[in-house]
TrEMBL record:
The name this protein goes by in its record: Universal stress protein
Boundaries of every UspA domain copy: 3-143
Gene Ontology CC: one annotated term: cytoplasm
Transmembrane segments: none
Length: 143
């Protein structure tokens, strides 16, 4: 099956590395196909109901360094593809991925599976699980 616009989710994990590598192979073997690599930035609130979180000196810079490293990794992976782009999204990861896929007429989502295990996944949830449950297009989960 030919896909015209693939969305690959990337968070820097080994599973997302594999997912992005797989997406690049699919798009590379189908000239004219488009790839968007989505990275979701989730910022925790610095205060909650009267309690505050004090950020130590340099933490904001460390976070920005990490984000820049991820952007460079994504750029390096897709540089050989003529129709590839990077989207930095904000908010809940699964929701942002699904909304971006819908708004940009993607016809496949490729996402890594972190393999949390049944108990941790039940307690914490899983982005890939939520994407699969709510997607209106095919989702390919890479282990």
């Amino acid at each position: 099956m030919n896909y015209h616009h693939i969305l690959a989710a990337y968070d820097g994990s080994k599973a997302s590395e594999k997912a992005l590598t797989h997406a690049v192979k699919i798009v590379g073997s189908h000239p004219g196909s488009r790839l968007t690599v989505a990275h979701v930035v989730t910022r925790l609130p610095y205060s909650l109901a009267g309690y505050g979180l004090v950020l130590t000196d340099g933490i904001q810079e460390k976070i920005q360094e990490y984000e820049n490293t991820l952007l460079q990794q994504m750029t390096d992976k897709i540089e050989s593809l003529p129709y590839a782009s990077i989207a930095v999204l904000k908010g809940n990861a699964a929701t942002a991925i699904l909304e971006h896929a819908t708004e940009n007429n993607c016809d496949l989502i490729i996402i890594g599976n972190r393999g949390l295990g049944p108990i941790r996944e039940w307690m914490l949830g899983s982005v890939s699980h939520e994407v699969v449950q709510q997607a209106k297009i095919p989702v390919l989960i890479i282990k």
